[in-house]
Amino acid sequence: MSIEVRQGDFAAFFDAPFAAYGAQSGYVSPLKSDLKRFLDLHKNPLFSDPGSDLSYWTAHQGGRIVGRITAHVHGASNRVHGLRRGYFGYFDCVDDHSVAMALLQQAEGWLRAKGLTEIMGNFNLTAMQQIGVVTDGFDAAPYTDLVWSPPHIARLLEANGYAPSFGMTTFEVDLTTASAPAIGPKQQAILDDPAFSFAPISRATIPTRMEEARLILNASFAKNPMFVPVSAEEFHFQAKDMKWVMDPRISAVLHHNGTPAACIICIPDLNPFLKRIGSRMRLSAPYHFIRHRMTNRRAVLIFSGVMPDLQGQGINPVVLRRVILAAQKAGYTHLGNTWIGDSNGASLAQKEKSGARRLHRLHLFGKAL
Q: Gene3D superfamilies under this entry (predicted)?
């Protein structure tokens, strides 16, 4: 049966993973309205750079949608890291080699025509958003901002000449049994030092705290592989509705002499809510959101960071202790963690020390163009 590939059909693009995986899979989509604005070249500031571009395709066979893929160029990333790399993302399809090949060839051809020499993914759309392909832990339910893909996606990529690299792991802490980091001499010195103070987080101050978190993110992640500084416009575009979904009790921003020093940003896990409404803002969505807020016991740590000049002083355990104790007091029972790369030994050791269990194993997949 022939495969038809369409370009720019957003309705089909949104529906593709539901059609490919079925309602019982672990896949959870971003809100349809959010996905649409992420892929809008005119609205997403990521693509305001003249060196950046994006396109997307869907595959159709026998009257049904059987897959999707994006291809994009992140101009700033290529300049910062000295690359000629393009990316594929949102790669979801049925377990069929011909469908996968048709989609991947579209992405590869589009990027090759732009003079790029390699392709890598999933990137949905940057290293600070959802990345990777799940290679183990398929039965674990993903938290907000975590990727999920079935086993055949990695297999189909390898069958089309892609090789796995850059291993990552996601984690989960059981807050009903976990202990907050202990207070040692370093941590006590920070708590006793009047130069350090936790900034208040409330509905009114969330915009200020989020901008401080962006500054900490850019400074603390500067030397991480694939990282590109995030502009204020990009950061707040991605976190557009954060004010309405954040629980101010479970994030923390630490100041040193009145300036941002460290942060841990957590949000309630929204995936059960999104799953319930099919990631569409139906008339029943407000009811389901309120119900979710009342019953949800899962949160996810989006990112944490310490300003470089303050690293190594025991600050991160102080902030993490505050967040874990606050989450436990607020009634949360589980705390997920977005991906940590294999090269980040310190963070991996911290997760092991905290008793976190491994959720998903992920890899990036790439090939030469």
A: 3.40.630.30
